[in-house]
Write a structure and sequence with these properties.
Layout: E1 3-7, H1 12-26, H2 36-46, E2 50-53, H3 63-76, E3 80-82, E4 84-85, H4 93-102, E5 107-110, H5 112-115, H6 122-134, E6 137-140, H7 156-165, E7 171-173, H8 182-188, E8 195-197, E9 204-205, E10 218-219, H9 223-233, E11 238-239, H10 249-257, H11 263-278
Parallel strand pairs: 1-2, 2-3, 4-5, 5-6, 6-7, 7-8, 8-11
Antiparallel strand pairs: 9-10
Length: 280
């Protein structure tokens, strides 16, 4: 089984303008149309069995509506499993997290950069703690964000501070623990019990507009560092992810499959770990 732990979709009527806006921020092109049907088509071409959809609340007013939409998407099934969302400024956070769990949603997505709050802020700490009590998974953007150059609201230092202050919680850090903060991830986060997803970590990113990020393509993590982190964190702590539609699921799978890892390690990262964590 292949599980993509990190994907995004948008309602059909706003998918087009939403992708245009995000493309202008990130200077990268999407690989699908950003709809649920587009993601399912991508999965079919790539051979992905399940994709976890990660909605982001950019303001507190969106939270209830987005969580209701996530519950409806989960009722459709057909290979898509949506997390819910939470915003650090949502006033009734405790009750809404309980409602999310009651709806059968497996976890929530946080995005400290879009939400403008540091990950070790009390507003996030109380969310993390409550999710741990409810058994909800938390997947958070970590490190830099390509659309907000220079801004880091979820650094390895903040993550370490947060996990020291909250009770046990199933915490997944996107982009191998912190996008382009990988040296600090290696130094600070082994032994914390966090999971890492592989999205947007291997290969190169081809920007729209020559020279926007400097000459040529933007290099991501070197293969040697990726393999070292597999050993440091353990293959049982890594989860395959693509950030679709911002990466091709088929190409991401191809990049991963040629890595010099044992078959059992590849199988665990590609789906076994997520299958266990999500209770699929």
């Amino acid at each position: 089984m292949i599980v993509d732990i990190h994907t995004h979709t948008f309602p059909d009527k706003i998918a087009g303008p939403t992708l245009e806006k995000l493309q202008s921020l990130s200077h990268t092109r999407p690989f699908s149309d950003g709809t649920a049907s587009g993601l399912r088509a991508s999965m079919g071409l790539a051979g992905v069995n399940w994709s976890v959809v990660l909605p982001v609340a950019t303001n507190a007013r969106q939270v209830v509506h987005v969580n209701d939409a996530s519950a409806r998407l989960n009722q459709e099934g057909a290979g898509l499993l949506s997390f819910g969302c939470m915003h650090p400024d949502f006033p009734d956070w405790k009750s809404e997290l309980s409602r999310i769990a009651g709806l059968g949603i497996k976890g929530i997505k946080l995005h400290p950069v879009y939400q403008g709050v540091n990950f070790d802020d009390l507003r996030f700490l109380r969310i993390l703690d409550r999710c741990g009590e409810l058994g909800l998974i938390v997947l958070t953007h970590a490190g830099l964000d390509i659309g907000f150059p220079g801004k880091v609201h979820c650094s390895p230092e903040m993550i370490l501070s947060a996990v020291k202050q909250v009770g046990p919680v199933k915490l997944i850090l996107a982009h191998m623990g912190g996008w382009r903060n990988w040296d600090q991830v290696e130094e600070l986060l082994p032994g914390t019990g966090v999971y890492l997803d592989t999205s947007f970590s291997l290969g190169k990113m081809v920007p729209l507009g020559d020279g926007y990020y400097g000459p040529g393509d933007l290099d991501l993590m070197e293969e040697a560092q990726f393999l070292r982190m597999v050993r440091t964190f353990g293959a049982d702590r890594l989860l395959f992810g693509t950030d679709s539609p911002w990466d091709s699921q088929a190409e991401a799978l191809a990049r991963f499959r040629v890595l010099p890892l044992a078959d059992e390690e590849k199988n665990a990262i590609l789906g076994g770990n997520a299958q266990r964590l999500l209770e699929l």
